[in-house]
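Can anyone check this?
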Amino acid sequence: MSQAHLRVSRRDRYVAREIIQAEPLTHQAHALLAANSWAQEQLPNACPTMRPVKMLPGGALLQRIFELPFEGPFGAVCERKARSIGMRRLHAHYGSFLVQVPKDVEQRFELGIELRFHGAARVNHCMERYQKNRAELALRLREAGETEPDIAPPPCDAVSRRSGGNVEQV
């Protein structure tokens, strides 16, 4: 992803979640969200991460120095090996679910666009699962003689911190 290509063409809940929870590497994280405003519409209660990752002094120079050996023949060998490992991992991962690697996943990997192992299908059905689970809970509460709880999500402007993958209100 670059500043020149911030708009994401694939629009589903999985991609929306990835955009919303992306860790900004610059002080211009708002540009990614502005270019993909549909993501906030998909997940209206989500709170985007707006604190940029702290950059290392001299990090760009250090990165360039580390990348230099990979520009020549050695880099080409490493790239072929990494692609081979990636393809084997894709087949092992999807094979563990007793399914073939989806053609679009394999093609996008071969084109160097993305390496996708996981669950867009699961994420894209989250609203249906949520509505089903909520309806089941409401029924159980009515059967128990209680009313359905009215629980509002915390506001996005609440100060939060990451803690082991969870967000805690402070």
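Reply from J.R.: I decoded it. The mean pLDDT is 78.
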